[in-house]
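User:
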Amino acid sequence: MWHFICEHISDVTQTFFSISKRNAVSGGDTHSAFVINDESHRYFVKINPLVNGQRLRYEMDGLQALSASGTMHIPQLICYGLADEGAKQFEYMVLEHLRFQNPQPEAWYELGAQLATLHQTTTAKQSGWHENNFIGQTAQRNTFSNDWARFFAEHRIGNMLEHCARRDLRVANIDVLVTQVHRLLQPHIPQASLLHGDLWQGNVGFCRYGPTIFDPAIYYGDRETDIAMTELFGAFPSPFYQGYNSVWPLAAEYELRKHIYNLYHLLNHALMFGGHYIDSCKSQIAQIRNVH
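Assistant: Predicted structure:
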């Protein structure tokens, strides 16, 4: 498999590449990640068993969409393909290797401003995406809709509750909660912006080219969902929000909606990890009902 990957890299870059060193690095829950290099080139490689589905293809699709916006540096795709190793099939994705740096406050400000520009300028007529994809290990339904409130209630909260129910995790009555979320979001009619979809600090980096984001769960929808997630698992530094608001200020009502939007991610974590995330979901649902 690695010989095949090297040949693919050589063909795409028109420069001969042969691995002289390969190091495994922390990747994801469903795939392996490596840094490979020869005497003069270094690449970041993800490998995923096809029994998990072509998840890297969906990730590639998201990276290419973000890159096409021209609003910030996105890791450059070198190549993507399928390969065999013994009796197993794998997909692989090769990206440029980026050396991350410790960011200064100005870099967080720049990230916020660039994300706001992405949200403001890269848009669609409907919420959704041209195909379903994944958020982490979980299938994400992206059927296009003209109704944002219905899209989020049904394809985000409802779909995630259905995933949970199939694992016998019952945190709320599906029909009741979907109806409540739809009702609460119905007055809000946002622009359908291109979203990263899984924007926490682990999917952000800073390199010589500036801020970068990766590992997207891409779709078009309300920009507030991206911002809400930045607050969920430890908020980004304050310069990030200052930079964002300098380009496209958030509405005051965002402070109410962010709890609805973050319920989606809490449900996903309850599905993947169980434990205290189940209680967090129930507390979040109670908070949404009390506030609204």
